[in-house]
Amino acid sequence: MRTRRAWTRRKTMAAACAAGVLGPLAASATPFLESSIGDFGDDLATRTELPAGTDVVEGTVFNETVVDPPNIDLLDFFAFSDLVPGEAFSILFETTNSDYQSNYQVSDQLGNLLAPEIDLEMGEIAQRGGTVPASGTVVVRVEVGGDIGGYRVSLVPEPATALLVGGGVMVVLSWQRRCNRPR
Ligand SMILES: [Ca+2]
Ligand SMILES: [Ca+2]
User: Fold this and answer.
1) How far does residue 98's CA lie from ligand 1's centre (Å)?
2) Cα of 58 from ligand 2 centre, angstroms
3) What own/partner pairs with CB < 8 Å and gap ≥ 24 does 157-162 have?
4) Residue 4 belongs to what H/E stretch?
């Protein structure tokens, strides 16, 4: 019995290895680039709704008045709209390119702040979190502080989710090791 079970397990594992099921781990998230659509909305009403499943966003705000013509895009508004109401969320804000602080806010669809706003200089990263409102929508507002403000905004998995994902990774790693073990 024991031998048969072991053989069945090895057969299942070999099939999984052959099928590539245990191949590369999930790829890291691909950022949604503002440049792919031109510009994110300039106010709450014209905010850009991100495609479902988006968890990383990269964009830029400008206030370059010395160039001709002036390059002005003071504000970007975009929304994560497929979140689960009542669940905790956490967002990582990063200023990737700037000559001065950029300002970040996170609100519901009516503009009510869900966490304290924050100013970040180039290279600075900060996290803000709260509870997803009943609408399931969390709106991010980015405002340029100097001439230019490049940014990256990422949804961060909650600890419970991260734990589950981490557990899954451990299982996959364990199976991958067994796949690679010489027979
Ligand atoms: Ca922009
Ligand atoms: Ca804009």
Assistant:
1) 13
2) 12
3) 158/87, 158/88, 158/89, 158/90
4) helix 2-19
Distance (angstroms) between ligand 2 centre and the Cα of 150 equals 12
DSSP per position, 23-43 = SSPPPPPPPEEGGGTS--BSS
Please state whether the peptide bond connecting residue 24 to the residue before it is cis, i.e. omega within 30 degrees of 0: no
Q: Which residue, 69, 119, 67, 62, is CA-closest to 94?
A: 119
Cα of 148 from ligand 1 centre, angstroms? 10
Enumerate the domain spans of the chain. Answer: 58-160
Q: Domain 58-160, what architecture?
A: Sandwich (2.60)
Residue 77 near residue 47, CB atoms below 8 Å: yes
For 72-93, write each residue's pLDDT tens digit: 999 999 999 999 999 999 999 9
Measured distance CA(106)–CA(115) in Å, rounded = 6
At residue 182 the predicted structure's pLDDT band, cuts being 50, 70 and 90, is low
Model pTM score: 0.73
| SS3 label, residue 1 | coil
CA–CA distance, 160 with 147 (Å, rounded to integer): 40
Question: How many angstroms separate the alpha carbon of residue 58 from the centre of ligand 1?
Answer: 9
